[in-house]
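STRUCTURE REQUEST FORM
Protein name: Anthranilate phosphoribosyltransferase
Source organism: Sphingomonas abietis
Requested output: structure tokens
Priority: standard
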Amino acid sequence: MTTIALLPDPATPLAFETAEQAFADILDGRVPEDAIAAFLTGLTLRDETAIEIAAAARALRERMIEVRAPAGAIDVCGTGGDGAHSLNISTAVSIVVAACGVPVAKHGNRAASSKAGAADTLEALGLDLDRAAATAEETLDALGLCFLFAQTHHPALGRLAPVRRAIGRRTIFNIVGPLCNPARVTRQLMGVARTDYLGTVAGAMTLLGTESAMIVAGDEGLDELSIAGGSRIIRLGACGDREEHVAPGDVGITPHPLTAIRGGDAAYNAAALTRLLRGEAGAYRDAVLLNAAAALIVAGRTDDWQDGADIAAEAIDDGSAEQLLQRWIAF
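Status: completed
Returned output:
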């Protein structure tokens, strides 16, 4: 007979040990669904703390299915939920940065708030998601790139899907998910859809031992560096402990309206990504170069924004990025 656990009152910020035990009870199925919904909603209504986010991430990390990764591997992903319905920026950035010689363990899922998530678009490009999961360690070693499908590596979250759908709004797990890469990367470019949450997420990353990171939010509420306006950034660890504000023009990139990178369904986004890797100029390319420059700084490949954008552009223009994608699909 399963023991029913009681959750603490979410109205008051929780200590690390209390929060970690609460999330362990939730993830292990010891709490009724109505109690989970009330707890998660209560946390969201008062805004989760860095301690609670880190504790939830620790609990989820202990229950994920891990993969080996080479030293220096990075991840590029965001919390989603920005409502921009843009093309798949982080997916394209992952391919381009891997083509620059930086191992990328791309963590992602199917669409939640958009028409095409990373998994949907990669599948439309021809990647067999089941095989990609089975060969993730091999492709990361051989190609410097893998896709870690969240629903495959986080079975504990599967039990919460009905509760999260019933809540109908973001919960702490939207923030925690990107912090729980199954390759246990310690270098990360993470987008957050709320600028006022940057410091909270940075605090959680610090508690979790992040080695190098940028937490970014576009001024428009994007969970990535904005191609339209400026973006707030908090740097952690090896890439510098500081805050900054970066606009496309600061990196030698022309700004574009957000409508210029608006996406569609998986087939639409896959076609756009293919054209991008074949050298098509425009807003999508520029958005990818901007975010790739950030990822290359996080990875320690460069410490200069313009240099990072130039390195990424070369990986596209010499065909390396497209060739890498095709090798990955054929693996």
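Reviewer notes: DSSP finds 16 helices and seven strands in the chain. Strands lie at 74-78, 104-108, 145-149, 187-191, 212-218, 231-237, 242-246.
Form closed.
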